[in-house]
Amino acid sequence: MKHTATFLVVAVCILAGCAPLSMTDMHVTGTPKPQYFDAGEHVAALGLIAPASLQQFAPLFSNALITALEEAHPPIRALSFQESGNLVNDRDLAADYGDLVSGFVHSGILERERLRRIGAALGSRYVLLPGVAEFDQTVIDRFETIGLKVFRARVTTLRFWLQLWDTKTGHNLWEATGEVTVVSQLLRVKETVPLDAIAQSLWLRMIQDDLLGGHTNPQIFFRN
Questions:
Q1: How far apart are CA 98 and CA 86, in angstroms?
Q2: What domains sit in the chain, N to C, each tagged with a CATH number?
């Protein structure tokens, strides 16, 4: 029943002859905006934390995060994980980074001393730690009568989480989780909304609405 209203809106538009579209429904929740975070300061993105089954999507979701940071108001300058990883390796801190991440997976905490060394190597007071909790895509048929399929849609669901850490104090300053469901009609292959566009929209909503205290539209229609 969760997506009934979404299906009805898209289906009515199809039957009425509207241009192809997709509907996005987003929900974001997070801790209060950090009091002393300066969006103008340099920020570095750490590697995306993902289940083994979703590791293949890490570069795509990570790149979408960097794009979202650039599109925020005000924009946040951030090192991508590719750049951060190279700097960490240049400073012979790969083992420290591996221990930092594995420790987080077990405890939910970035160990202060390793985080401080990583932050110094990156030249960043703050680091963003992103993660993906769920990614699912299904194709659903609706309004089928006597074998005639009136409406076929792809339903894409993404759930992300994002944390902001202070590398000097070792404090978790802010965290948020976000979920997006995109229903896109499948009349032609070109009408599918790209996964990176979906991910970027969700990251931007989390950053703009929660971290920066701005506002974005909770429901977005993509024109294909």
A1: 14
A2: 4-223 (3.40.50.10610)
